[in-house]
What we know:
Elements: H1 9-21, E1 50-53, E2 64-65, E3 71-73, E4 76-80, E5 102-107, E6 113-119, E7 126-135, E8 145-151, E9 156-163, E10 174-181, E11 187-194, E12 202-213, H2 217-240
Parallel strand pairs: 1-2
Antiparallel strand pairs: 1-4, 3-6, 4-5, 5-12, 6-11, 7-10, 7-12, 8-9, 8-11
Helix pairs in contact: 1-2
Amino acid sequence: xxRLRKFKASTLLAGLFAGAALGILPTIAxxxxxxLVDPGFQLNNVSGGYAYPSSDAGPGGPxxxxxxxxxxVGGAGVAANESAFGVHNAFGGLTPDGSDGQAGFVQxxxxxxxSQTFTDNLAGSSAVVSFWYEGRSAQDxxxxxxxxxxxxxxxxxxxSQSITPTGAQTTNFTEAMYSVPVIEGDxxxxxxxxxxxxxDHTTFIDNVSVNVVxxxxxxxxxxxxxxxxxxxxxxxxxxxxxxxxxxx
Length: 248
């Protein structure tokens, strides 16, 4: 049978102070999910084809459109399933089988990127960045993409990860997920930046999400209290030990 031990009020208070002194009192996140604009790249309907941003328009150039939601720079844009870009199994779409799903693409680099800036108070919490990626199987194959998360102090957070699709990842989307401790700031930019400067390399991005992992308030407070009590009692026990004689 589990027996609960009683503690004096002074010991409980001392435990809380000890927990605070040791820096283990948590910051509780205020949100669970960040509402990104167009996380599945369906906002801009490319009618089964593909499009670069209108800033790339030129005589005899590829199809362009006023792409919204994300910021598309250089060789980045939106492509539909089975379009000339060769996207396979992108999510979303209006048809039951999802055959008209779309994805963002990053072609070449390092001047090609897809990015979005969002505002939320993530300081002191942990953000989980998730997305799906697929490499182009035609032309010169997949593009290496650098995934960056920066805050409004222009500091790159621990998420600075390169991905290069291989094998089956060139015909099916694969999920990537990274947990990022956020130290400060209230405005952040998530960017997918192409890295292959030579040849025709492309990687597709889909279903992007940023979620906050909150700490359970009750459970965390209990752990802080118990840890603080243990620390406090340990200090008291150490202080009560008899002094050992010193030898020259």
